[in-house]
Amino acid sequence: MRFVNPIPFVxxxxxxxxxxxxxxxxxxxxxxxxFVLFETGFAIHEGAALERTIWGDAxxxxxAYGRGNVLFYFEDQDIDAAFTRIAPHVDLIHxxxxxxxxxxxxxxxxxxxxxxxxxxxxxxxEDE
Length: 128
Description:
The chain is of the alpha/beta class. It has 3 helices and 8 strands. The strands form 2 sheets. A 4-stranded mixed beta sheet has the order 1-4-3-2.
């Protein structure tokens, strides 16, 4: 068995597709209407459609799908340029900060309230 990809539920598939394409620069590999797969393996699914597929009915609530219990992690070779490009268009959690492990990252919310982290690539040692 192998893990393939996360599939977050989104309220508005067109809005979320545009966000991940425009703000993060992801390229669409497949678009099936209610499901979009990006070249990176990241995917989004229209929440109501996926709820009906899994549980037979969509929840009546309009509560945000992002609930602070998952973080989507991406890397960018130029973290400062990514921050400059993305930060003005998102609900920022925090600007670029150096983490305890040495990596520089910033975090924000996507249109559905999912937390997203953009980090500089980790440089692994030769024996790791």
